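Retro notes, item 3 of 5
We never archived the inputs for the S-adenosylmethionine complex last cycle. Fixing that now. Sequence and ligand:
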Amino acid sequence: MTDHKADRPRHTGRRAPGGPGYLRDDRSGRAPRAGRPPSDPARQAAYEAIAAVHRDDAYANIVLSDILRGLGLSGRDAAFATELTYGTLRALGTLDLIVADAAGRDVARIDPPARDALRLGAYQLLHTRVPAHAAVNQTVDLVRSVAPGAAGFANAVMRTISETPFDEWLTRLAPAYDEDPVGNLSVLHNHPQWIIRAFAEALGGDLDDTARLLIEDNQAPIVHLCARPGRAEAVELADEVDGQPGAFSPYSVYLNGGSPRELSAIHQGRAHVQDEGSQLVAAALVAAPIEGTDNRWLDLCAGPGGKAGLLGSIAALRGAEVTAVEVAEHRARLVEHATEGMPVTVLPMDGRSVGRDPDLPEESFDRVLVDAPCTGLGSLRRRPEARWRRQPSDLPALTKLQRELLVAALRAVRPGGLVAYVTCSPHLVETQVTVTEGARRSGVEADFVDARTLLPPGMPKLGPGPTVQLWPHRHGTDAMFLAVLRRTA
Ligand SMILES: C[S@@+](CC[C@H](N)C(=O)[O-])C[C@H]1O[C@@H](n2cnc3c(N)ncnc32)[C@H](O)[C@@H]1O
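Structure as it came back at the time:
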């Protein structure tokens, strides 16, 4: 195993800044070439993960764990590779501005393998305490192995970047806050401008508060566990895993570190990994009292099964049954796995036909969860590449699907029953607009229930209701949105 002691990064405490956008590339799958050994294994792993994200649209967490396993990396090397991969992907926008400035050309005009190696090198120079000479030499070695003709160019670019401290790069490249506040925040806090505007709108136009959110989005999130009701108690689970009971959800436990995969509570089905905000919105659906029958519950967008796992555990205690619908077959199988031993029936089908399907006719459920597919802008902390990959052009198709799923849910619930509409995005178009429009188009009469009353008492900063928007910088959760509707006729 390579010893990185000499050039191991120590966190500078600086947060990654942001910039212009995401550049997909069209290179064919080129890995470091044989011959001169490329860089060291941790940097090689990070390079391969970053290249796969840009070349293949891979998810960083999935591809990186495959690469680490393939290279046999663990411990400090794996941690270093993870820090480099996630840090580089998160900081991409501003790294690209800096690389372009140092190279004297737009990054779109740099050969993709050299471009990714330079991004990784710039990250080491500007965001870690890897000594400059090590960052430069390792990057040039890496470029020599993946884009041999560009080694001299990479050397010049890296040296130029290393001559200017990070703060000076920001001053040089960020527009003045007074003239262009969103442009400034984008470079300083490393988010695309359209996402900052969407956050600011959802936060009532408060740019100071928006900046607090952006800073929080750049922190590595704590892993939350859900202690499954009837199978585990949060306090005991916290002791068992050396964690802490969560602040709000009665089921949540915050892990202090380590991999949740190793925990026997997970293997034994007593707990699952789930953001506390997701626990809260799923539990809210079953917290509201209803009159009449209360044993037919529906999870309309169930994959991969986090909320179905919580609802299924509660259903087992309350004598209810959950129907879990998921359109993607492989995700439906994940739901089956996540709900083993629970009163949950998984149906791989399009949720939009629910309420019209002879087997799932209108008015056949007492409670329905619509955890709609969305942009995921509320969980950017967990997906370092997502902010640069998502585009505003993703919104129309998603919001159409969200509306249609909400209409199906309102059809499927019986009068007096409840529908919870949930997204892990705070974008107003996916939250307030979808709910208002979906409810209007459904032709079903429904009233809002004040969702604040369905969350644990004493939760701060829940706004004026009746819907609730959770936030990373206010609640330590993903930015989950919750609206609860009761069908009246
Ligand atoms: C936000 S995720 C749900 C997360 C899940 N509730 C959990 O807690 O693990 C949205 C899910 O909806 C599924 N989906 C997308 N379109 C759908 C449709 N028309 N009908 C049913 N499921 C759909 C997606 O495949 C995805 O698994």
